[in-house]
Design goal:
Blueprint: H1 5-19, E1 24-25, H2 28-35, E2 49-50, H3 55-68, E3 72-75, E4 92-95, E5 111-115, H4 120-129, E6 132-133, H5 146-152, H6 159-162, E7 169-176, E8 181-184, H7 197-201, E9 209-217, E10 219-220, E11 224-232, H8 235-248, E12 252-259, H9 260-270, E13 282-290, H10 295-304, E14 308-314, H11 317-328, H12 330-335, E15 341-346, H13 349-366, E16 371-377, E17 382-388, H14 396-407, H15 432-445
Parallel strand pairs: 2-4, 3-4
Antiparallel strand pairs: 1-2, 5-9, 6-10, 7-8, 7-9, 11-13, 11-14, 12-13, 12-16, 15-17, 16-17
Helix pairs in contact: 1-3, 8-13, 13-14
The structure holds D-malate and zinc ion.
Length: about 450
């Protein structure tokens, strides 16, 4: 759909008129960081990056692109991991980063309205300043944006306690593919007046509308926090322990799993001392947070689990952060080995233990020289199967793992979305009837097919 020659020149002239010459980027060097994803696996090309200042300019940009038949990729912090926010088919990049205002916190409703380009860290700061907290948190918090996390329905570290992004979004402002603006930001919790558009747009990966702002629910700030890192002999016992802790600890906020190989890679990559004198095959990091000190509750729960090896407990912020680094730095450490294939999946908790044992074998059978790294949000069955040593376009491992996940009744995308990386396998999780209804919604909200037309659907939506 990308136009060449004079048509493109005319479109770029109109876009310059909308955002001003400083915010239409056509210079190759300046464009480059918008054209490649965070992992380095997905690299495209765009005729221009357009950076609107507000919702009105965003609507005008969509309108110009729609009239000229230019496809758009909306982009926030560009921390996506499935090739959904980079211009792989020559799309115009619509960067929302300038729309980054975080409004005043409404303490009585416990809500805040944030612009699409506000980072998750900025929302955290605003909530914190009002004695509250935003429930979505993730390692990319300093760069990931509200718009991007709404577009992908990001999960993150605290889903077991609060749910994902969709559960926090109670109002939305967006520009649809028709060019129409919708804005429903009153934040009324009880509001049964028809289709819940925040839910429709959340997780739609920029295919239905460009999110410009979101009204976000905030939660109680629990200042008493304790983190424990626990070594286990085997995965089955680790998974069993997490299930027990979920029932026993109301204040359980995160339960993250990683393996010995990943821990060693993190320590080697960043010069960290290992947490214990001896290595354990499996580690679980748990965080509890409450109004009153939850240390005794956590210690009691850990002590009652079977097969517990070494345990490290951290109450103060610096030591908590030091323990979290072993988990959060997995993403950075794995990327030092070259662009990984990121297979972000959920499997039913009853098969999670055997899945962790089976996956490296499945990967090795598909590509013997590949290496598997497993870590993730074990409390909700979401594991990040990262595979290194495979060429970016070699999809044998992806096929083997995702097919296996589906055969177990799991999801091929737990929290990163489908993007371009996984659309080939969407049929594993979605029936023909579901895909047809999704396409019908796409056609209704984006009849010209300008909004991120090359993601999500196995073939471009039309
Ligand atoms: C994480 O949980 O760390 C993120 O989803 C990032 C990743 O999968 O690498
Ligand atoms: Zn994750």
């Amino acid at each position: 759909m990308v136009r060449a020659g004079t048509a493109m020149t005319a479109a770029l002239r109109e876009l310059t008129h909308v955002v001003g010459p400083h915010h239409l980027i056509t210079d190759a060097d300046e464009r480059s960081s918008y054209e490649i994803d965070w992992t380095g696996r997905f690299h495209g090309h765009t005729p221009a990056v357009v950076r609107p200042a507000d919702a009105a300019e965003t609507a005008a940009v969509v309108d110009v692109c729609r009239r000229h038949g230019l496809a758009i990729v909306p982009q926030g912090g560009n921390t996506g991991l499935v090739g959904g926010s980079v211009p792989l088919a020559g799309e115009v990049v619509l960067s929302l980063r300038r729309i980054d205002e975080v409004g005043p916190v409404d303490r009585s409703a416990r809500q805040v309205t944030a612009g699409a380009g506000a980072t998750i860290a900025a929302v955290h700061r605003a909530a914190q300043g009002a004695g509250l907290r935003y429930a979505v948190d993730l390692a990319a918090r300093d760069t990931a944006t509200v718009g991007g996390t709404v577009g992908t329905n990001a999960g993150g570290l605290n889903v077991i306690r609060y749910g994902g992004t969709r559960e926090q979004v109670i109002g939305i402002a967006a520009v649809l593919g028709t060019g129409a603006r919708i804005e429903h930001l009153q934040g009324l919790v009880k509001d049964n007046t028809g289709y819940h558009l925040p839910s429709v747009l959340c997780g739609s990966e920029g295919t239905l509308g460009v999110v410009t702002a979101a009204r976000l629910q905030l939660v109680t700030r629990h200042d008493e926090r304790v983190v424990a890192l626990v070594g286990f002999h085997n995965v089955a016992h680790a998974v069993e322990a997490v299930a027990t802790w979920r029932s026993a600890l109301d204040c359980l906020e995160a339960a993250e799993l990683f393996l010995d190989g990943g821990l060693r890679l993190v320590c080697d990559s960043f010069g960290l001392a290992p947490p214990f004198d001896r290595a354990w095959p499996v580690y679980v990091l748990v965080e509890v947070a409450a109004v009153h000190d939850p240390t005794d509750d956590l210690a009691g729960a850990v002590a009652s689990a079977s097969d517990v090896g070494d345990v490290a407990v951290a109450g103060d912020a610096a030591r908590r952060e030091a323990l979290w680094r072993y988990r959060e730095d997995h993403t950075l450490a794995i990327n030092t080995l070259g662009p990984p294939h990121k297979l972000d999946v959920t499997v039913p908790l009853v098969v999670l233990g055997e899945f962790v044992v089976d996956v490296p074998r499945i990967v090795a059978a598909a590509v013997p020289e590949a290496r598997t790294w497993l870590f993730g949000h074990v409390g909700d069955g979401n594991l990040h199967v990262n595979v290194t040593g495979v060429a970016p376009d070699d999809e044998r491992v992806d096929d083997a793992v995702l097919t296996h996940v589906a055969s177990l009744g799991g999801s091929i995308s737990a929290e990163h979305g489908i993007g371009t990386a996984k659309r080939r396998w969407l049929h594993l999780n979605r029936s023909e009837a579901e895909l047809a209804s999704m396409r019908a919604i796409k056609r209704a909200l984006d009849p010209g097919g300008v909004l991120n037309p090359n993601v999500l659907f196995p073939t471009p939506a039309g």
